UniProtKB/TrEMBL annotation:
GO biological process: L-cysteine catabolic process to pyruvate
One Pfam family named in its UniProt record: SDH_alpha
Protein name: Serine dehydratase alpha chain
Organism listed in the record: uncultured Anaerotruncus sp
Tree of life domain: Bacteria
């Protein structure tokens, strides 16, 4: 592969991972799948069957849905069928209203939800049965990656043939740094939209309870106004606005709005606080994206560990070292600092509490970078921390995907038990 081909490949990876999404991406993905099924089926609805992986269910179960007060996986299905325009992609719920929910709620008794417990990647399958037709829509591997639309009689799908691309693992951190240094600025201008969109989301969150509490803590002297603290506040307020169900669009990273918030705002707000120029900031965001994509290729789309901390936050930390003029070794040190500290932060579903996790993720991202710049780095001999770029994430993936495989089911069991009380 030539350097130009490699650059084009990296750009495609970044741009395909960026999408504007209104609302948490898991309910949106469910609604998009259901809306696509409704668009392709004829007749009056009689049955609605939805099967999904447990990680997706976990993330969609209690999070806010934009524009309405009700929550739940079944609600996401119903509003997708009644009010979702699949042509809008991940922005299909941006105009959702309570009136739409009132129309959709009549479908709730029809909806049957089951789990694909063997699937380790994102999976949604909606089957709609009408008085004259049956259609099945399957999403696999990414929130908006619809791989099949079929009418009855249905054939069994070979999901292995739709396996998620891991070709990014053929590249190194040095490749990503070289790309960030040399990609034409015009090619990464769209990253500015991500910064601006997510900063706007943060402004919404600053007017909500999270923003008011953080402002009071700062005024009371319990928090400061350092670059670290201001970066934390900016990221957490954006996440709070989004997780609360507000009609707040954000730019995603690797299909996740909260990862997009962590990545863009940790980098951009730190750059603003330290007066780092716009070009360097955009190049840093490009580097952060590549690292995030690389990590996600190992741990998967819906890991039982919080990707804001150990994927997007890790990418942001590398980007901060980059903006400060640090070396590849210092970037490795920043990553080891994160992996040696917050690797065990669980993903127990999307909800307002994720905003607090982003508070932690932004903090550890910035501090890990600053410590690495001063030569303070976790040893590669510690715990699960690896001694090479790929080994760090091979180890992490083994713990998350093999060691913690039962964790998602356990978390869903706990969440369902709480709901049944």
């Amino acid at each position: 592969m030539t350097e130009l081909e490699k650059r084009a490949y990296f750009l495609d990876k970044i741009m395909s991972s960026m999408k504007i999404a209104t609302g948490c991406t898991e309910p949106v993905a469910i609604a998009l799948n259901a809306a696509t099924a409704r668009k392709n089926v004829k007749g009056e609805l009689k049955e609605i069957h939805v099967k999904m992986d447990m990680g997706l269910f976990r993330n969609a179960m209690t999070v806010g849905i934009p524009g309405i007060s009700k929550r739940g996986v079944d609600v996401s299905v119903a509003v997708g069928i009644v009010a979702g325009d699949p042509d809008k992609g991940m922005d299909l719920l941006s105009t959702l209203t309570e009136a739409d929910y009132e129309k959709a709620k009549v479908l709730l008794p029809m909806i049957e939800i089951t789990f694909n417990e063997e699937c380790t990647s994102l999976f949604i399958e909606t089957t709609l049965v009408t008085d004259c037709d049956s259609v099945r829509v399957t999403t696999f591997g990414a929130h908006d990656r619809i791989i099949d639309i079929s009418h009855a009689p249905f054939k069994e799908l070979e999901l292995a043939n739709a396996a998620v691309d891991t070709s990014i693992q053929n590249y190194t951190l040095a490749d990503f740094i070289e790309f960030a240094n040399n990609v034409p600025l015009a090619d990464i201008e769209p990253l500015q939209t991500g910064i601006d969109t997510n900063l706007a989301a943060s402004e919404v969150g600053k007017q909500m309870l999270m923003g008011k509490v953080l402002s009071k803590l700062t005024a009371d002297g319990m928090m400061d106004s350092s670059a670290v603290a201001e970066t934390q506040k900016t990221a957490t307020c954006a996440a709070y606005a989004r997780m609360s169900g507000g009609v707040v669009p954000v730019m995603t990273a690797s299909g996740s709005g909260n990862q997009g918030i962590t990545l863009y705002l940790t980098i951009a707000k730190f750059a603003m606080e330290k007066n780092i120029d716009r070009e360097t900031t955009l190049r840093a965001v490009a580097l952060g994206h590549m690292v995030n994509i690389y990590v996600k290729s190992y741990i998967g789309v819906l890991s039982p560990i919080c990707s804001c901390g150990i994927a997007a936050g890790l990418g942001a930390s590398v980007a901060i070292v980059y903006m400060l003029g640090g070396s590849e070794d210092q970037m490795m040190g920043a990553m080891r600092n994160i992996l040696g500290s917050v690797s065990g932060m669980l993903c127990d579903g999307a909800k307002e509490g994720c905003a607090t996790k982003l508070l932690i993720a932004a903090n550890i991202s910035v501090l890990s970078a600053l410590m690495a710049m001063e030569g303070l780095c976790t040893s590669p001999a510690d715990g699960i921390v690896g001694d090479t770029f790929p080994k760090m994430f091979e180890n992490l993936a083994y713990v998350a995907n093999v060691g913690m495989k039962p964790a998602t089911k356990a978390m869903v069991d706990v969440m369902l038990a709480k709901r049944s009380k």
